[in-house]
Design brief:
- The structure is a single chain.
- The chain has one domain: all-alpha NTP pyrophosphatase fold, CATH 1.10.4010.
- It contains 8 helices and 4 strands; from the N terminus they run H-H-E-E-E-E-H-H-H-H-H-H.
- It has a two-stranded antiparallel ribbon with strand order 1-4.
- 21% of the residues are buried.
Length: 212
């Protein structure tokens, strides 16, 4: 699935939420709200990644969680286990995908869809060289670029040198680091990311239908 389809899918979800919840806000207010939501999801992703938890015996990423046996009613008024339906989830990937939703929302709001495209060669280069400052360094740098969007004034003079404004440059960098963390550190493929995104987007629509 292409990023273009993901952007359109996210726009549909966002527009539904705004319409059904009766949300009225300025462009700036909406953008800042999305940044806060993204920040929270990134922190939840880090929490499942566990790499920074030096105080814990377990610093391995939380990639498998048992969701429990599924049951069905039987003819005698009790319940029986449904054979073969033990289910597991990947909390790390789930939190990562939640952050993807908000990156896409930011891109839609600003018309920055083209900034989401990245060179796979750059990902492979990082796979070989590693992140400066390790995973902590990459994570904090990503957050720093996102903070630029929230607290610093955009500057058009960046366009002459870089081809993007200050905010565009910052967003592109944050997104690339985010994608690199997923693909390099946790070996997510973009196909896996896209598949998980569409699955979670469907759940998000169901939640809206059910009064989430």
């Amino acid at each position: 699935m292409s990023l273009e389809i993901m952007l359109k899918t996210q726009e549909g979800l966002d527009n539904r939420i705004i319409s059904e919840k009766g949300i009225v806000w300025s462009e700036e207010e909406r953008f800042r709200n999305t940044l806060v939501a993204l920040d929270v999801e990134l922190s939840e992703f880090a929490n499942e990644g566990r790499w920074f938890k030096v105080w814990s015996v377990n610093q391995e990423p939380n990639t498998k969680k048992w969701k429990g046996m599924q049951w069905k009613d039987n003819e005698y008024g009790g319940v029986d286990p449904i054979h073969g339906t033990d289910e597991y989830s990947n909390p790390l990937l789930e939190e990562y995908i939640d952050a993807v939703h908000f990156f896409l929302s930011l891109a839609n709001q600003k018309g920055w869809g083209e900034l989401l495209y990245f060179a796979e060669e750059a990902i492979e280069d990082l796979r070989e060289s590693g992140f400066d400052g390790g995973l902590n360094g990459a994570y904090l740098e990503m957050k720093r670029w996102l903070c630029v969007l929230a607290v610093e004034v955009d500057e058009e003079n960046y366009i002459k040198q870089l081809g993007w404004s200050k905010h565009q440059f910052s967003f592109k960098n944050a997104w690339f680091i985010f994608i690199a963390i997923g693909m390099v550190e946790y070996n997510f493929t973009f196909e896996q990311i896209a598949e998980a995104y569409f699955a979670k987007n469907k759940i998000n629509h169901e939640r809206q239908t059910n009064g989430y």
